[in-house]
Amino acid sequence: MMIRMPARKPPPPDTAHTRSPRRAGARKAPPDGAIPAADASRAEASQRVLRRFRSVFNAVKTHFQQVERQAGVGGAKVWALSVIRGEPGIGIGALADAMDVHQTTASNLVRALVEQGLAESHRSGVDRRASQLKVTRAGVRLLDRAPGPFSGVLPEALQRLDSATLKRLDDDLAALLDLLHPDQDAEHIPLAEM
After folding, report:
1. DSSP, res 179
2. 54-88: per-residue pLDDT in tens?
3. pLDDT-derived band of residue 184, with 50, 70 and 90 as boundaries?
4. Among 31-45, 110-124, 130-144, which is the least confidently predicted range?
């Protein structure tokens, strides 16, 4: 008669040398209700950036409110007037280029300035269609009481940044704008008009 022996179980694997079934670099699941550390860090970073945007917008808004209080007209008009004073005889197209706005926007600003007696528009030279702009005495007085910078605090601050920082900002804001899908015309509207 043959006696059968029970089969032996293999010894447990040596866990010190066994690789976890989780893939390398995978995060451990957080306890119920907890936010993973990487997600929490990203949420904090996005809140910090949002606060910085709020500070930028508030600085811009505060400056334009101060301009309007002291000068009695909006910041875009003050900027346009300062460009005209700096280049007497400038045309509307060149004004639009100097302010980086659409020609229609520049034309509307000039029309308002002329109606308020702050600027004059004369047609002269060979092409009688082209306007030459000039600041009136009332316009000069307005600029004398308006707080600077006339272009606004944000353009002034951007001008003072170094090239590497501007490049980084440009790239990062382009990535943000890709997610926002803004109106393409908005980039040519003066901040004071928004």
Report:
1. H
2. 999 999 999 999 999 999 999 999 999 999 999 99
3. confident
4. 31-45
CATH number of 60-150: 1.10.10.10
> For the packed helices 137-145 and 37-71, what is the interaxial angle rounded to 10 degrees?
130
3-state secondary structure string across the chain: CCCCCCCCCCCCCCCCCCCCCCCCCCCCCCCCCCCCHHHHHHHHHHHHHHHHHHHHHHHHHHHHHHHHHHHCCCHHHHHHHHHHHHCCCCCHHHHHHHHCCCHHHHHHHHHHHHHCCCEEEEECCCCCCCEEEEECHHHHHHHHHCCCCCCCHHHHHHHCCCHHHHHHHHHHHHHHHHHHCCCHHHHHCCHHHC
> What pLDDT score does 2 carry?
45
Give the closest residue to 117 by CA, choosing from 136, 96, 144: 136
Count of residues making up the chain: 194
